[in-house]
Write a structure and sequence with these properties.
about 170 residues, two-stranded antiparallel ribbon, mainly alpha, about 5% strand
């Protein structure tokens, strides 16, 4: 199983930032403005440049934030796997300024739980296989916001499904 490379995602963002002569604030603003109509309706707080630059050190990002960045880069999550992948490449819906791509964590949980039961695995056994904790997996059922992108992509590979099976165009 391949891991999602947050370092490669950061490098791709940085390369695009340099090519377009943007500051990190400029990148954050452009990413956020991809959903400008939705932002005006929801009055959410904008994406912080620190969310982007912090990936360089932390080597992690949430699955929801990753979708913002992937949309701006016009890339799939599978294109950032650090090795061969058993999952198919994602094809995301075209999203206008009135929507955002979002992980459907309930659907991800339902998929992983069904497959876990079919394979007669405990949560602890599955967590061992996916190199995470059982609570990171069971917490998907009630997660309000996000899980880590690395874990989300481990799950999609374990399910042998593309990430796009668990992503939708949210309008709220």
């Amino acid at each position: 199983m391949s891991d999602f490379s947050v370092a490669d995602l950061y490098a791709a963002l940085d390369a695009q930032r340099i090519e377009r002569a943007l500051s990190w604030r400029g990148v954050a603003d452009e990413i956020w403005n991809l959903s400008s109509v939705l932002n005006d309706v929801r009055h959410d707080h904008p994406l912080s440049p620190a969310t982007l630059t912090g990936m360089r050190v932390r080597r992690q990002t949430s699955c929801q934030h990753a979708l913002f960045m992937l949309r701006w880069l016009s890339r799939t999550p599978e294109s950032f796997l650090d090795g061969p992948s058993r999952s198919l490449d994602s094809v995301f819906p075209i999203v206008g300024a009135d929507r955002r791509l979002r992980w459907n964590l309930t659907t991800l949980y339902e998929g992983v739980n069904a497959q876990r039961r079919e394979r007669s695995q405990s949560w602890a056994e599955l967590a061992h296989d996916l190199h995470c904790t059982a609570s990171q997996l069971t917490g998907l059922r009630t997660a309000k916001f996000a899980t880590g992108m690395v874990i989300a992509m481990r799950i999609t590979q374990w399910l042998e499904r593309p990430a796009s099976d668990f992503v939708y165009a949210a309008k709220w």
